Amino acid sequence: MDRSPYTPPKSYLGGFSSSPAPASHVRRLAAYVVDQVIVWFAIGIAALLSIIPMAAIHGATSVVSGEADPAGNPETVLVGGMLLMGWLGAMALETMCITSRWRGTLGKRLLGLHIVRADDGPLSFGQALMRSAGRSIALHIFPYAFVIGVLSPDRRQLWDMVCGTRVIRAE
Q1: Rounded distance between C-alpha atoms, residue 167 and residue 141, angstroms
Q2: For 103-134, b where at least 16 C-beta lie within 10 A, e where not — what string?
Q3: For residues 167 and 169, what is the distance between their CA atoms, to the nearest angstrom?
Q4: Rounded to whole angstroms, how far apart are CA atoms 153 and 163?
């Protein structure tokens, strides 16, 4: 079957040629809040679990009262490493969720959103990883990066524009 180069690509979501509606800012924000609650809960559990061995080594009162010297303390490096591994783990989990059948994080799934390429196709692993890292870095360096998406007519955030992705309502 010969297609004209001017024919728009067929959507991978249900076979419709028209693009699904972009997700609203409110739904995207709510999905982000759900995801952050899950991530910070997991980090909190990891932090509590890291206090137990430190309390056993230094004594419970010195850890709780802050008498243990954090400078040059190997446990400080351990906790910092655990937080870094938690951040990298959260990015890896987000990347796997985006490239899975869910096409988004748990928050996006609960709110009926999908992350797709600009042509509505599924994301590659590289695109999903770049989007996850780009979002995380952009929000840490420039906390108001989300304003770009609010002002964008197609409701795409900075990291969506860079990675060629968009968030849509699942139908």
Answers
A1: 22
A2: bbbebbbebebbbbbeebebbeeebbbbbbbb
A3: 7
A4: 17
What does the block give as tokens for 114?
A: 């999908």
Q: How far apart are CA 108 and CA 119, in angstroms?
A: 19
For residue 122, pLDDT beyond 70: yes
d(CA 7, CA 138): 35
- Using CA atoms, how far apart are residues 120 and 37, in angstroms rounded to an integer? 28
Res 18: pLDDT: 67
Where do the DSSP E strands lie in 3-147?
113-117
Identify the band that residue 11 occupies on the pLDDT scale cut at 50, 70 and 90: very low
Task: Tell me the two tokens of residue 55.
Answer: 């309390």
Residue pair 169/27 in contact by the 8 Å Cβ criterion: yes
Arithmetic mean of pLDDT, 89-107: 88
* Cβ neighbour number for residue 95 with a 10 Å cutoff: 21
C-alpha 170/C-alpha 115 separation (Å) is 9
Q: Summarize pLDDT for 36-46 with one digit per residue, the tens.
A: 899 888 878 87
Q: What are phi and psi of 115, to 5 degrees?
A: -105, 125
Q: How far apart are alpha carbons 48 and 154 in whole angstroms?
A: 42
Q: Specify burial of residue 163 (Cβ count, 10 A radius: 0-12, 13-18, 19+).
A: buried
Contact 117, 162 (CB under 8 A): no
Cα 107 to Cα 110: distance, rounded to the nearest angstrom: 5
